[in-house]
Design a protein that fits this description.
With about 350 residues, the chain is α+β, with helices and mostly antiparallel strands. About 40% of the residues lie in helices and about 15% in strands. The longest helix has 16 residues, at about 80-95. Its EC number is 3.2.2.31.
């Protein structure tokens, strides 16, 4: 048997039972693919179910507020995906009458949809012969064919797309694409793949040449930056606090956080006391402060590590823009802030 036959046979016998595999509805497939970008199935599945429950069609999603969408997305990370999801829902609902583009070329025009996602939707929903190439596919192809071209290089991207396109089953592109992705996700895993019982082991170049651990090859990422965040958790006698919306582009855009002060190093209580806070929310306030966590909470993102301290600011009365502490749950916040809120428990104040 050839590569594609062995792969699809394996898939028929080993595929996971996932809800988006029981439909050709492009809305459902699009939603699952956006959620699963940079997210594993076990983490993304509950979010998929929640979105389908809250927004059963693209029209409900389009009519939701961005804040509601971000709140439902909370915890998945890479929040630009959620913002693009919402913008695309509005475009499809209000400009395309609820009809998703039915081909790779037009799907590619949707915000948040790249080569991989367009190919996945086109093949699965509309049976178009368009090969998917994601992290799982890169791993399977680089190992099986012994390809050492870096997968994140221009040459590598072109090479693997061309190879995947030459292998795809033109009679059943949906099944082939799902098969190779599933194989990479559950069998030909990054670490400890099941080579002994692999249906492709007799002709896998990486296995024959002992290259399993070194393939695929990836160029080094950009240097990770270290930042020092100081969140001002303000509380007054009326059980009010302050949340601010991050409006600038970058991490956590349009999410909410406690007022933030960045510093060039991790601050001690003595150093915090010496800060000039006249331009902060504490201006003209009489307050007492205490440090919630002596050790920095380190929150790791793809290109930066955030060393974080939470400062509890107790004041008599906060500004007019303060909200009740029991309303915090209504605002979409980053996981870092959500974890603090859960551990601090405002309700006990």
């Amino acid at each position: 048997m050839d590569f594609k036959t062995k792969l699809t046979n394996w898939y028929s016998n080993n595929k996971r039972d996932l809800p988006w595999r029981h439909t050709k509805n492009p809305y459902h497939i699009w939603l699952s693919e956006i959620i699963l970008q940079q997210t594993q199935v076990k983490q993304g599945l509950p979010y998929y179910k929640a979105f389908i429950k809250h927004y059963p069609t693209v029209f409900e999603l389009a009519n939701a507020s961005e804040q509601e969408v971000l709140k439902l997305w909370q915890g998945l990370g890479y929040y630009s995906r959620a913002r693009n999801l919402h913008k695309t829902a509005k475009h499809v609902a209000f400009e395309l009458n609820g009809n998703f583009p039915d081909n790779y070329k037009d799907l590619l025009k949707l915000k948040g949809v790249g080569d991989y996602t367009a190919s996945a939707i086109a093949s699965i929903a509309f049976n178009e012969v368009s090969a998917v190439v994601d992290g799982n596919v890169y791993r399977v192809l680089s190992r099986y064919f012994g390809i050492e071209t870096p997968i994140n290089s221009t040459a590598g991207i072109k090479k693997f797309k061309k190879l995947a396109s030459s292998l795809i089953d033109k009679g059943n592109p949906a099944m082939f694409n799902q098969a190779i992705m599933e194989f990479g996700a559950t069998h030909c895993k990054p670490k400890n793949p099941y080579c002994i019982v692999c249906p492709l082991n007799e002709s896998c170049v990486a296995l024959q040449k002992n290259l399993i651990d070194s393939l695929p090859v990836k160029l080094k990422k950009t240097k990770v930056k270290t930042k020092f965040f100081n969140f001002l958790v303000c509380i007054d006698k009326n059980n009010k606090t302050i949340l601010e919306k991050r409006t600038s582009k970058g991490i956590w855009q349009n999410l909410y956080q406690f007022p933030l002060l960045e510093s060039h190093k991790s601050l001690s209580s003595e150093e915090f006391h010496l800060l000039d806070l006249e331009d902060s929310v504490l201006k003209n306030l009489k307050y007492d402060y205490s440090l919630y966590n002596e050790e920095d909470i380190i929150h790791k993102l793809s290109h930066q590590h955030l060393h974080t301290k939470f400062w509890i600011i107790e004041a008599e009365k906060l500004t007019a823009k303060a909200i009740l502490t029991n309303e915090i749950k209504n605002y979409p916040v980053p996981v870092l802030i959500s974890d603090f809120i859960e551990s601090f428990n405002f309700n006990k104040l």
